[in-house]
């Protein structure tokens, strides 16, 4: 294990929570790769859940660099904040927000069929067919608006449950400026071909269910 964690009781049945509660690590290859490739820049990490990646990422960045973490689910955000405190991660900034292509309020589905979704909570753009008690109002922000332009970003890691294209669009200025390693769970291939391939990016590998893109 990489640290001490606050796991939300409501979503303890989720795979990432179970891995931690059983003394293991969720997506160890992803964590190890980011730690080995953080280099001389900041890490942007979205889909923070309860912060299981945070201790490893915090140790990976050099003095003066930071981890910018984003989690829209209020319960998950509270747990991640406690995880940050438990491990004294002073170089980690956590935001109770999702990442997208514009700053706006949106709906997040946090429950389905009576079960808390935990790290699988997802932003829904069409929510009329979803019961109101399964949704919460959340803020969505752009990486380009939150991370100062003078901050070198070395890794952009997104696990945002199908909202990757929106999050990448809101980070395009940062990507163009610093050419960070991009790690995404859901690969928006046509968007990548149009926007990242001209910047020199190509897919260079897989980490669990994630695709690694490098320039």
Q: Can you offer a commentary on this structure?
A:
With 215 residues, the chain is an alpha/beta fold. The protein has one domain: Rossmann fold (3-Layer(aba) Sandwich). It has eight helices and 13 strands. Strands 3-2-1-10-11-13-12 form a seven-stranded mixed beta sheet, with helices on both faces. Strands 4-9-5-8 form a four-stranded mixed beta sheet. A two-stranded antiparallel sheet has the order 6-7. The protein starts with 14 loop residues before the first helix and ends with a strand.
Q: Helical proportion?
A: 25-40%
CATH homology-level superfamily: Vaccinia Virus protein VP39
According to CATH, the fold-level topology is Rossmann fold
The number of strands is 13
Which regions are unreliable across 5 or more consecutive residues at pLDDT < 50? none
- Main beta sheet, described? 7 strands, mixed
CATH hierarchy class name: Alpha Beta
Strand order of the largest sheet: 3-2-1-10-11-13-12
CA distance, first residue to last residue: 31 Å
Give a quick precis of the structure.
The protein has about 220 residues and is of the alpha/beta class. The protein is built from 8 helices and 13 strands.
Indicate the topology.
Elements: H1 15-21, H2 28-37, E1 42-46, H3 54-60, E2 67-70, H4 74-86, E3 92-95, E4 98-99, E5 104-109, E6 111-112, E7 115-116, E8 122-124, E9 135-141, H5 143-146, E10 153-158, H6 164-169, H7 172-178, E11 181-184, H8 189-195, E12 202-207, E13 210-214
Parallel strand pairs: 1-2, 1-10, 2-3, 4-9, 10-11
Antiparallel strand pairs: 5-8, 5-9, 6-7, 11-13, 12-13
């Amino acid at each position: 294990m990489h640290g001490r964690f606050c796991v939300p009781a409501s979503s303890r049945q989720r795979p990432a929570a179970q891995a931690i509660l059983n003394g293991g690590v969720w997506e160890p290859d992803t964590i190890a790769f980011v730690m080995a490739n953080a280099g001389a820049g900041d890490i942007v990490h979205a889909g923070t859940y309860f912060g299981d990646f945070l201790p490893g990422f915090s140790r990976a960045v050099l003095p003066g660099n930071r981890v910018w973490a984003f989690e829209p689910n209020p319960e998950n955000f509270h747990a991640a904040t406690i995880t940050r405190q438990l491990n004294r991660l002073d170089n980690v900034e956590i935001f109770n927000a999702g990442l997208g292509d514009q700053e706006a309020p949106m709906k997040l589905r946090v429950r389905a069929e009576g079960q808390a979704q935990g790290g699988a909570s997802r932003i829904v753009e069409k929510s009329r067919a979803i019961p109101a008690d399964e949704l919460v109002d959340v803020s969505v922000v752009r990486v380009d608006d939150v991370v100062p332009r003078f901050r070198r970003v070395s890794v952009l890691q997104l696990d945002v449950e199908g909202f990757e294209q929106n999050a990448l669009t809101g980070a395009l200025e940062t990507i163009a400026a610093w050419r960070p390693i991009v790690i995404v769970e859901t690969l928006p291939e046509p968007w990548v071909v149009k926007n990242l391939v001209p910047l020199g990016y190509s897919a260079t590998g897989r980490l669990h269910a994630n695709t690694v893109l490098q320039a």
